[in-house]
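Here is one chain, start to finish.
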Amino acid sequence: MTITAIVFDIGGVLVRTEDRSGRIALENQYQLPPGGVDELVFNSKIAADSTVGKANSERIWQYIAEKLSLTPEALGAFQKSFWSGDQLDKELVEFIGSLRKTFTIALLTNAWEGARNILAKQYNIVERITVDHLLISSELGFAKPDQKIFYILSDTIAAPFHQILFVDDFYENIAAAGLLGMHTIHYKSGMNLIAQIQNRVNQ
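Its structure:
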């Protein structure tokens, strides 16, 4: 098995919600069910449109403000609390840097319009510096698990599917990639991902 490229998801893999207390507090404050705040933020029609570049991400927050009757100040507090538990896995980022000596490294993320700037400012994730390629669904017009985005990935990184190792935390994305012949790792909380990757590339 020859792997020449390794591709990582960002949200849920490189950047994870390690502390959910902020989101739980929002659910209690606004009388939402468990998981309701994630549902509100990520699963609206506007959020789906922004993920494929059809809507400005600011409209997502306007929608939330309208749903919860939030003032601008309350919306700002909501956003701060919602993202407060997200952390970058610095050990994994350092490991990814070491992999660039041998492999083409790419990030493939379903993310709203404006994500490239946010990733650079908040997490110092920059194309050609942190990784070789950064592919964002809102810029491409397609989102995982749509296989069109994987064809764009393959063309961009100049690697056929059977030479790509793809890491994602959503099973439907892993399944779609696997059907195309990509090697996959389904990341789950607590997994020693670095060891898993080392095992795969050393086979």
